[in-house]
Write a structure and sequence with these properties.
The complex is a heterotrimer of chains A (89), B (346) and C (345).
Chain A lengths: L7 E4 L12 E7 L6 E2 L4 E7 L2 E6 L4 E6 L6 E3 L3 E7 L3
Antiparallel strand pairs in A: 1-8, 2-4, 2-7, 3-6, 4-5, 6-8
Chain B lengths: L3 H26 L24 H8 L7 E4 L4 H7 L3 H8 L17 E2 L4 E3 L7 H13 L6 E6 L6 H12 L4 E7 L2 E2 L2 E2 L20 E4 L4 H16 L5 E6 L17 H9 L2 H11 L4 H24 L35
Helix pairs in contact in B: 1-2, 1-3, 1-9, 1-10, 2-3, 2-7, 4-10, 5-6
Chain C lengths: L1 H9 L4 E2 L1 H15 L3 E5 L15 H9 E3 L4 H13 L3 E8 L3 H12 L2 H4 L9 E6 L14 H6 L4 E3 L4 H13 L4 E6 L16 E2 L13 E4 L4 E5 L2 H14 L5 E5 L2 E3 L3 H11 L1 E9 L4 H13 L5 E7 L8 H7 L3 H13 L1
Parallel strand pairs in C: 2-3, 2-4, 4-5, 5-7, 6-7, 10-11, 10-13, 13-14
Antiparallel strand pairs in C: 1-8, 6-12, 9-11
Helix pairs in contact in C: 2-8, 4-5, 9-13, 10-11
Classes of the chains: A mainly beta (89), B alpha/beta (346), C alpha/beta (345).
């Protein structure tokens, strides 16, 4: 994971649905691709946990540097979905 | 006064219905985790389960005979079980198998068992007009058969229901309308869609008797239905009956119910009519072991039906072309779709 | 038209599902115009069973995103009345199959009041509805019924196949002074629990834009066979075209996008080039879209026609069990077979 010191992870813990018992989710849709310019708060992707769909906002403005988990990928609550390279990073 | 044997019968039907829904839920979710894909798993399509509604089917149908007609809505299993629909063939239908009640053409919202005069429909309140039609036929033929239309409380705002109340009333038809109030029309709580607190109040505007059973209780429903069905059978016209039930499994399988307060669901789950009826049985001196035997019999029956259904063959694709008509127009050869006609895998 | 859209799509880095594109257009129109409001079953707190209004309640509240009683006659008719009073209502039928419950308001009021009033009344409303099968919901929840609405005069009929088209067509639908029936295919919405095929999720500009009604879109250019289709089957036809390319059959795929008005010019021009016409539809075969397209080409360009094929749902209700539903809803192989057959002729 070298070079991550200047990149910001896109994570799901903050938006994980309250009532969900499941600890596993699935990435349903990405709305931006690698290399895209994103603003903090833009919806980057959508995941589904127990049929509840949840949007994942960009934690910071910058460039979507890397998508770690693509569409249909299964993941757990703490996993990193993608990395953003911030504007001033 | 309800007898102990009837209590016992209702109890076993209700346990059957509850276990049936729990097992269907399990089967339905098989292959749908962690990603819920509606097209995955052994049971096709949507699934509306009736856990929490059992007292209504059991309490009402206890008064019905095979020649009485029942129409049910999109949440029909508990009513079908109480009406005596063939459980194995109904289950095969839900699994989309060739030996299902409708050879796999109908599915869980469109179950038909003419042997016990049961039918259901997936469109809200649409079972009401056919029910008054069955009542009309009984009246014209001078039999003492009755018809019961089941609907949800969300359906009481629908024209098909209101028009049927009026027609049943003006012709004194032997019909009972049973509104199952589970408090939710998908995501809509009733206070947001109707100003009446009590669906039975609709009866007043049509000058027919209306009654509401306020508690999730099979015995109270049994008593109210006894009066209503008796009135119909004696030629004294229709009744509108609303009964309180509750929804334990969402509107359809996979409903996230994010609109529903957790407290509401938790409170509803406390009103378990099956547990309440078990208490009644004990109060009548029925031993716990007897109650347990009842449960085991019910579970076994459900398991048998599901096992049998899953063993049944899937329909032949070409069968899709049959049964559009009872009397196919001349020149139409069924099961012989021409290669150019469609869509076929021919 | 197609090229212009392509460049617009490339200009954006963001792609959206079809449902999100529709919602974005509705939200924009609601911000711009206080007269726009949305009525339907489970459109508020639920956000639409098929995500057609997802998120709108948060911004606009229950006054403008209205859950209604299960009373299709009343609320569709109320939309007609509000539209005639000058508002711009959007009314949603949860499933198009439920149209029967409120059909009188749709075809005897919404569709005819302009004409019956000699043009003195207009009905600027949108009727949205979810359409289509492929997920075993059986006979009362799987139909498309496009052709029925298009058959009855007085309604504009929109059937988007991509997010880009869905947004532009929705803007146009809400701004149009006539009643528009906007039919979205469930399988294209991009809902997590009903995965869409590749294709409907496209780049979508953030700003508003309109796609005029009556402009079919050539989704794939080809020389050999013209395939005219709409909705979900645009994507199935595109898949078929890819496999046919390996056999040196070059199919042109035309997405009608609207049935009323119908862009016969684009279809005619294509058939003039290819001489071979395949019409693909998820509606019933008889008295429907496929027959209408073939007839309209035959009327004006019979001499161009060397081969015609129709691929549609045979005249049976949609069955429940998977093997039978698969039998009646045309799939990619059915389309490829029809194109091959037309090509051989």
């Amino acid at each position: 994971m070298s070079g991550n010191s200047d990149r910001v992870p896109v994570e799901t813990a903050d938006v994980w649905p309250d009532g969900a018992d499941a600890e596993e989710a699935v990435v349903v849709n990405w709305f931006v691709g690698e290399g895209a310019r994103v603003e903090a708060g833009d919806d980057l992707c959508e995941f589904q946990v127990e049929k509840v769909s949840v949007d994942v906002p960009a934690p910071t403005s910058g460039t979507l540097d890397e998508i770690v988990l693509g569409e249909d990928a299964e993941f757990g609550r703490g996993d990193t979905l993608a990395w953003i390279r911030p504007d001033d990073g | 006064m309800v007898g102990v044997s009837e209590l016992h019968e209702m109890y076993e039907e209700m346990v059957t219905a509850r276990h049936y829904e729990e097992r269907l839920q399990e089967e339905y979710l098989d292959g749908k985790q962690p990603a819920f894909d509606i097209s995955a798993g052994p049971i096709p399509g949507e699934l509306h389960l009736a856990a929490g509604h059992e007292a209504s089917g059991a309490g009402v149908c206890q008064h019905l005979r095979d020649d009485d007609t029942v129409t049910a809505p999109h949440r029909p299993h508990h009513i079908a079980i109480a009406k005596g629909v063939d459980l194995k063939r109904m289950t095969a239908e839900i699994f989309g198998r060739e030996t299902g009640l409708s050879k796999g053409k109908g599915g869980h919202m469109h179950l038909f068992d003419p042997d016990v005069n049961f039918a259901c429909s997936g469109i809200i309140a649409e079972g009401c007009p056919p029910a008054i039609g069955a009542g009309l036929a009984a009246k014209k033929r001078n039999t003492d058969s009755v018809a019961v239309a089941f609907l949800g409380e969300g359906a009481i705002d629908q024209g098909a229901f209101l028009e049927s109340l009026n027609m049943a009333a003006v012709h004194d038809l032997p019909v009972v309308f049973v509104v199952e109030d589970n408090d939710w029309a998908i995501s809509m709580p009733k206070e947001r869609v109707t100003d009446v607190e009590n669906g039975a109040q609709r009866a007043g505007g049509f000058d027919l008797p209306g009654a509401r059973v306020d508690v999730d209780d099979a015995v109270s429903i049994y008593d109210a239905a006894k009066e209503a069905v008796g009135r119909a059978r004696d030629g004294n016209g229709p009744t509108l009956l609303e009964v309180q039930v509750h929804r334990r499994m969402g509107h359809f399988m996979g409903d996230p119910e994010s609109y529903r307060p957790d407290e509401d669901k938790a409170a509803a789950e406390q009103r378990d009519s099956i547990e309440r009826l078990a208490e009644d049985l004990r109060a009548h001196g029925v031993e716990d072991t007897t109650i347990q035997e009842s449960r085991e019999r019910a579970h076994e029956r459900v398991e048998e039906a599901i096992e049998w259904a899953k063993d049944q063959p899937e329909p032949d694709p070409a069968d899709a072309h049959d049964d559009v008509f009872s009397n196919p127009p001349s020149g139409v050869t069924e099961s012989d779709p021409s290669a150019e006609v469609t869509g076929g895998d021919d | 038209m197609a090229q212009q859209e392509e460049s617009e799509q490339q200009a954006t880095e963001r792609s959206l599902t079809m449902s999100r594109a529709m919602v974005e257009a509705i939200a924009h129109e609601m911000r711009e115009n206080d007269e726009v409001f949305y009525m339907g079953e489970d459109v508020a707190d639920y956000g639409g069973i098929f995500d057609s209004t997802d998120g709108l309640l948060d911004e606009f509240g229950h006054d403008r995103i209205m859950d209604v009683p299960i009373s299709e006659t009343a609320y569709i008719g109320a939309a007609v009345g509000a539209a005639q009073a000058g508002m711009r209502p959007i009314a949603e039928l949860m499933f198009v199959d439920f149209f029967g419950v409120g059909m009188d308001q749709i075809y005897n009021q919404m569709a005819k009041n302009t004409y019956m009033s000699g043009g003195s009344v207009s009905v600027p409303m949108v009727l949205t509805a979810a359409v289509g099968g492929t997920y075993n919901d059986a006979a009362q929840h799987s139909q498309t019924l496009y052709g029925t609405f298009a058959h009855l005069p007085g309604m504009k009929v929109v059937v988007p196949s991509t997010a880009y088209d869905a947004k532009g067509l929705m803007h146009n639908a809400i701004r149009d002074d006539d009643p528009v029936v906007y039919l979205f295919h469930k399988r294209l919405m991009g809902i997590g629990w009903m995965p869409a095929p590749d294709g409907p999720k496209t780049g979508v500009p953030k700003d508003d834009y309109t796609i005029p009604f009556g402009s079919a879109d050539v989704k794939r250019e080809g020389e050999d066979v013209t395939v005219v289709t709409l909705g979900l089957h645009v994507h199935r036809a595109l898949d078929a075209a890819e496999s046919l390319a390996d056999e040196d059959i070059d199919a042109e795929i035309i997405d009608l996008r609207t049935l009323v008005p119908l862009d016969t010019d684009t279809v005619r021009e294509s058939v003039a080039k290819t001489g071979r016409l395949v019409v693909v539809d998820e509606d019933y075969r008889s008295f429907g879209v496929t027959g209408e397209i073939v007839a309209s080409v035959a009327e004006d360009g019979l001499a161009d026609l060397e081969a015609v094929e129709r691929v549609a749902v045979p005249d049976v209700p949609i069955p429940y069990a998977r093997p039978m539903e698969d039998e009646v809803i045309p799939d990619t192989d059915d389309i490829a077979d029809a194109v091959r057959s037309a090509h051989r002729t």
